[in-house]
Amino acid sequence: MKKSIFSYFSYLVLLLLTVGTLSSCGETEGVDPAPTITINPTSATIDVGQTAEFTYTVVSEKNLEEIRVISRNTTQQTITGSDFTNNKSHSGSFAFTGVAADAGSTITVTIEAVDKAGNRSSQSADITINEATVTPDPIAIDAFDARLLGAQSNANVGSFLDANSGTVYTIANAKSNAAQIDMAYLQGSASNNQGAVIGSLRDASVESVFSTSDGSWSTRNNTRFKNTSLSEADFNAIGTGEGQKLIDAYTTGTQPDAVNGDQSEGSASRVNQLAAGKVFAFRTADGKEGLAHVASVDAGETGTITLNIKVVQ
């Protein structure tokens, strides 16, 4: 009798273990799928100077946290928060322009998406850039050395720059020449970790400091800015007929981290934390690319910044 009871008990335990094992094999709990990404087209072939355009869609079961567009091993654009189409999906586009250094190579552009739960996914498109067969015509540039700009409380030095002529304006003269103003200098908010700032007249920080959105400015040019990895030596080596290098530097530049600024299509309305030695790229409202080398910074609201400028004619 004891043997029979023991055998029956053993059978029940074995049955329960078997059912539990089968149940656990048939279900996966607590695993959320990563966002789904679609890119169109998935590949392209272009010549140097040509542009390939792509669209993409991201769909997520969880709310989206961040989308990044990555090329040349660098984040070119970051989309977050209110920039999403909605909390769980986003439709966007990006453009890739082949530059001389890309000739004969294939560049991969990757869309990476992360949701609020940390689930991550990515999809890529390959762009083949044909070997260059024709030497490009020289593109003339203008160069302006040692342009001194004063911050917002500097009573002696103007804060506004016409990048096409190298002219620096005080705020009174800038208003009467608003169509020529491409950028302004200010000492930014410490709470936003801005430091020395160069921005367009449409940038939120420039608007706040100089009241450029109060209706008294006839024109507010929307200059765009990008970071570069260029050194002072790289900047100095660009010759008077090498405007293509300025265009390439802007094209391959990366989106600045401009808190509360306008960030779109890999560029921003300002560059923050400027320091001696930094080289940043810009494109004026009339479509002229340029580079600015920061020669020196005297921090503070009464301080100054000295820029060396090169811009396509």
Percent helix range:
10-25%
Can you give the mean pLDDT? Answer: 88
- Give me the number of helical elements: 5
Query: What does the main sheet amount to?
Result: 5 strands, mixed
Q: How far is it from the N-terminal to the C-terminal residue, by CA?
A: 104 Å
Using the alpha-carbon principal axes, give the shape: globular
Give the class from helix and strand content and strand pairing: alpha+beta
How many domain modules?
2
Low-pLDDT residue spans: 17-28
Strand percent estimate? 35-45%
Short note summarizing the structure:
This protein is an alpha+beta fold and 313 residues long.
Can you characterise this structure?
The chain is of the alpha+beta class and 313 residues long. The protein folds into 2 domains: 36-129, Immunoglobulin-like, CATH 2.60.40.10; 141-312, no CATH class. It is 17% helix and 39% strand. It is built from 5 helices and 20 strands. The strands form 5 sheets. Strands 2-8-7-4-5 form a 5-stranded mixed β-sheet, with no helix packed on it. Strands 9-20-19-18-14 form a 5-stranded antiparallel β-sheet, covered by helices on one side. It has a 5-stranded antiparallel β-sheet with strand order 11-10-12-13-17. The longest helix has 25 residues, at 2-26. The protein is globular. 37% of the residues are buried. Residues 17-28 have low confidence and may be disordered.
